[in-house]
UniProtKB/TrEMBL annotation:
Belongs to the chromate ion transporter (CHR) (TC 2.A.51) family. It holds the Pfam family Chromate_transp. This is Chromate transporter. The chain crosses the membrane at residues 16-37, 58-81, 87-111, 123-140, 152-182. It comes from Holdemania filiformis. It is found in: Cell membrane.
Length: 198
């Protein structure tokens, strides 16, 4: 059986730019919409990143300031090709919205009064809600695979704090990050002690 040839750096840059540009061009409705598309492209199709790593990248992108689409692109680009990869992905992510918004702003008056554009936007809102629900479901499935009670507790506690007590999302992220760090360090320490006893 012939071994699959690894793509060259130039091929990876080109493929990454084309993929990210296309995803950004056809992603409507906010940053979270791009997450399942990135997963499908870089995890399922290209196999450049594994699913668990993708979830970690999404968590980092969400907890950092700025748009999640741009943050996610930077992290993926950096992970695959370092700083040049991050720069390529920034350009690929920002360029399509910049072009589209420039065109829309030029014809803003015509777009604003068009009933067709209004109808399209209403239809897109429903599609965006479905895509975001798909993101949440896929991330939840990835979380459920791990048998970690602390993660389940944080998931429920964060939901209750955000929805019912209106706690600032920044506080929730910082607290969950701190608890996750302590839990990880405790599990690592326990694993090392177990290895030493063997």
């Amino acid at each position: 059986m012939e071994e699959k040839k690894k793509p060259s750096k130039l091929q990876m840059y080109t493929k990454m730019f084309a993929s990210t540009f296309t995803l950004s061009m056809f992603t409507f409705g906010g940053g979270f919409v791009i997450v399942p598309l990135m997963k499908k492209k870089f995890v399922d199709e290209l196999h450049w990143i594994d699913e668990e790593e993708m979830l970690d990248m999404v968590a980092i992108a969400q907890s950092s300031p700025g748009a999640i689409a741009v943050n996610g692109s930077i992290i993926i680009g950096y992970r695959l090709l370092g700083v040049p990869g991050a720069l390529v992905n920034i350009v690929a992510t920002v360029l399509p919205p910049l072009i589209i918004l420039t065109i829309i702003s030029y014809f803003y008056a015509a777009f604003r009064s068009s009933p067709i554009v209004s109808a399209v936007m209403r239809g897109m809102q429903a599609a965006v809600a479905a895509v975001i629900l798909d993101v949440v479901w896929n991330m939840l499935k990835g979380l459920v695979k791990e048998k970690n009670v602390v993660k389940y507790f944080l998931l429920v506690a964060a939901f209750i704090a955000s929805v019912y007590f209106k706690v600032n999302i920044l506080i929730i992220i910082v607290v969950c990050g701190a608890i996750g760090t302590v839990d990880y360090m405790a599990r690592e320490k326990k694993a090392k002690e177990g290895e030493e006893q063997k």
